[in-house]
């Protein structure tokens, strides 16, 4: 099996030979790069279970700077229902669409690189926060927001937040992803 590690020195695709959009993530001050991770499970549009490719360690990853609709009834679903004034069943359908997008872009078995901000490594539930860099060199976090499958969120601060907020605004204006069905998430 051949794996092209994505590092700050190697952020070019063998196919295109152009600078990858993920280069900016490697330039974040005090970024920690963790290579050789495999997607084990996709829990929802903003959470993955990953495992070491050459080891036994697994961990739950929460994507930096975004929030995708929930796929299960929960406390968070009820909070989102109250904030958005949308029924939980509709929000759950949006969550399933976001989940489907993640499955398309990053199905179980996908080799990924994790980028972690040293001063902002864990969320409230002690899950690892990360930017997920795909084999294509694209950032899953950015793709979700750009395509309207998740909204930018300040719940878990990240260095890319202002850019993510701008991408979210553009996705909403252009009715991409979940914004095809609704203006408020």
TrEMBL record:
Q: Report the InterPro entries cross-referenced here.
A: SNase_OB-fold_sf, Staphylococal_nuclease_OB-fold
Q: Which PROSITE patterns does the protein's record reference?
A: TNASE_3 (PS50830)
**Name of the featured protein:** Thermonuclease family protein
Looking at the record, the residues that make up the TNase-like domain are: 33-181
Q: Which species is the source of this protein?
A: Epilithonimonas ginsengisoli
């Amino acid at each position: 099996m051949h794996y092209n590690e994505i590092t700050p020195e190697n952020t070019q695709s063998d196919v295109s030979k152009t600078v990858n959009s993920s280069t900016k993530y490697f330039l974040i001050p005090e970024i920690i790069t963790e290579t050789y991770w495999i997607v084990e499970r996709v829990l929802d549009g903003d959470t993955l279970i990953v495992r070491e490719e050459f080891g036994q360690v697994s961990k739950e990853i929460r994507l930096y700077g975004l929030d995708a609709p929930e796929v299960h009834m929960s406390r968070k679903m009820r909070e989102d229902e109250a904030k958005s004034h949308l029924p939980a069943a509709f929000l759950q359908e949006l969550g399933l669409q976001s989940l489907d997008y993640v499955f398309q872009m990053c199905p179980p078995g996908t080799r990924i690189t994790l980028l972690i901000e040293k001063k902002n490594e864990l969320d409230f539930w002690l899950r690892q926060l990360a930017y997920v860099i795909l084999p294509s060199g694209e950032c899953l976090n950015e793709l979700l927001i750009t395509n309207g499958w998740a909204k930018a969120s300040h719940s878990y601060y990240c260095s890319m937040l202002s850019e993510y907020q701008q991408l979210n605004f553009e996705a909403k204006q252009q009715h991409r992803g979940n914004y095809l069905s609704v203006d408020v998430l």
